Every structure is written in structure tokens, then in C-alpha cells.
Here is the input.
Amino acid sequence: MAQTTRGASTGGAGRPRDPRIDDAVLRAVIEILNEVGYGGLTMEGAAARAGTSKPAIRRRWRSRQHLVVGALAATIGTAPTPDTGCTHCDLVAGISTLSDAFATTVGRRALPALVADLADDPELEREFLDAFFNPRRATTAEALRRGIDRGDIRPDADIDLLLDMLASTTYYRVLFGHLPITPDLAESVISVIMAGVATDHWRSTHAAE
Here is the structure.
């Protein structure tokens, strides 16, 4: 579950890191975020909940913001968008993991405040991008390229634009809370996007299915 991030110490030549502490701390962070939100999270509180010490946490994460990044990466994960042989299915599965995670209390309570902190902390922003954002984006990019190779997506499709469009609905709803993240959101988003970039081959095959 634990992620080794740019903000975490590798322990150098000293005593090896105990992954059980990493796991306990990240679980504690998620519990605290669910209970009292981003503003109520402290290094001391996470240490007490995890049964460890603040110095032990400091050796792994530089700040409470880095703790939140680690917790998001561990909870939501950066597992690759699957390769099922079906472009539509791959994309729905990949975006669903994001929607499912941010539909939780922790997503709504943590992400908007964390994004605000990224604007004033370039190092934290790099951590967020490297540990969480970019790995997920890269796996979805691969799914789109597989779709092009299968003949499902037009070869001239703008991959970066599609990546932004695929995830933006979920992020937008989390950040502003104006509409809920519904169970069928991923399916709806993929259907709209594929309607614009799919080949005639995909349209005929998908319609038959």
C-alpha cells in the first residue's frame, strides 16, 4: 500500500525502514481526513493514531501535505488502466477507479485543499505529479494508444487533450461539489468522448455489442 515518494526518506545506510510503519501512518492519515478533514490533520495526530513518533514520520514525509499526497497515492492507487482487449472497457475501468475514490469523504475533504497548497509549493507540486497524477495519466495514455492500434480511435486524436477530458469531469466535481460523482459517471464520460474520436469500425462494433 505504501508509496516511496520524492518527499519520503529512503533511510540511507541506517536501520532499514519498517513498511508496517508506512502502512500504519497512511491508514491513520486516511482515518483522520475522513473524521476531521484536511485542516484537522497534524503530524502529531497521525503519529499518535499510527502508534509511532513524529520524528519517525518526519523521516518518511517532510510535511503533512506530503503525508496527504502519500495517502492519496496509496488509497486511490496508480495501478495501470487494464488491457482487456476492449478500448471502451479499459477506459471505463480506469476512470472508474478515480471516480470511486473521489466519491468518498476523504476525496472531497482532501483534494481541494491540497490543490490549493500546490500553487505555493513547487516541491509539493512535483511530489503530487510524480507520485500520483502522472503515473495514472501515463497508464490511461497507453490505453488510448492501444485503442488507436486496434483501430478504435482515430490516429490523429490528440492524446493529451483526451487525457484532460477523461479525468476533468471527476476532478471538477470534486473541487467544486456542484454535482455528485455518480456510479455511472465514468461510463457517461467515455461514451461522450468516444462519440467524438472513434473510428467507423469502433462505432459499428460497439453498436452491435
Q: What stands out?
A: The radius of gyration is 19 Å. Confidence is low (pLDDT under 50) at residues 1-14.
